[in-house]
Specification:
The chain has 225 residues and is α/β, with parallel strands linked by helices. Helices cover 32% and strands 11% of the residues. It has helices at residues 31-41, 51-62, 67-76, 81-90, 110-115, 117-128, 171-182; strands at 102-107, 141-146, 158-160, 165-166, 190-193, 211-214. The longest helix is centred in the N-terminal third of the chain and has 12 residues, at 51-62. The relative contact order is 0.09.
Length: 225
């Protein structure tokens, strides 16, 4: 045992040499993907600056980012694995493990916490019979607790699979969301307008939005004293 071995880790350490999920034959880019990567690289002075876009493309292709997929991205940009791994593990939007069909990212930062973010998270845990960080047995839902998603004015809120936000959450809204997702119905993008812009902007910041909403003052969470 070396002086650098961690004998009693605070959290469980990841497997340092996991079995690959994808074979070498699968770890290849199509010609179209290669062309797209070249376009990403052309935007920056150095190729490795395109790592976020390439990781995102890989996630769209493979579903998640096990080490061998991160290695593919690193090799593609001629950069160290450790650097690519650091980017992939810094952002929760990159999935390092296989996820459910729908990933529910519930914000529990201060504003969402104060207005019921943890209430919503715990309600989802009860409804889905999983804890945060777990996936339902049927592979339909992965539930995650995440940091600020930048939508404090419509707290509590969540994001669905790195896509649309669901604002001003209530238990009733959660129930409707789960039922709709089970039917394959993704929530539509909702344009949320600041109260002071209601009159000047007609209640909508985006002319292409199919649904609109307004920031509401949410009641304080019952669990906050």
């Amino acid at each position: 045992m070396s002086q650098f071995d961690i004998q009693r880790p605070v959290v469980e350490l990841p497997d340092q040499d996991p079995d690959p999920v994808f074979s070498d034959d699968e770890l290849v880019w199509t010609e179209k993907e290669k062309e797209q990567i070249e376009q990403y690289k052309a935007k920056y002075p150095e190729p490795d600056a395109a790592i976020m876009s390439v990781l995102w493309m890989a996630q769209e292709k493979f579903g998640f980012l096990p080490p061998e997929v991160i290695q593919l991205c690193a090799d593609t940009l001629d950069m160290p694995f450790s650097k690519a791994y650091g980017v992939a593990t810094f952002y929760t939007q990159y999935y390092k493990e296989e996820q459910g069909k729908f990933v529910l990212d519930v914000c529990t930062c201060f504003t969402c916490q104060f207005t019921g973010g943890y209430d919503i998270l715990h309600y989802l845990e009860e409804q889905l019979d999983v804890h945060a960080g777990e996936t339902t047995e049927d592979g339909m839902f992965t539930l995650q607790e995440v940091e600020c998603l930048g939508c404090c004015g419509s707290a509590p809120m969540m994001q669905v699979t790195n896509g649309p936000y669901v604002h001003n959450l209530t238990k009733e809204k959660v129930d409707d969301l789960l039922e709709n997702l089970k039917k394959g119905e993704i929530p539509k993008f909702t344009s949320v307008t600041l109260p002071q812009d209601e009159d000047e902007m007609g209640g909508n910041r985006r002319s292409d939005a199919e649904t609109t909403d307004t920031y509401k003052t949410q009641p304080r969470s019952k669990t906050i004293k």
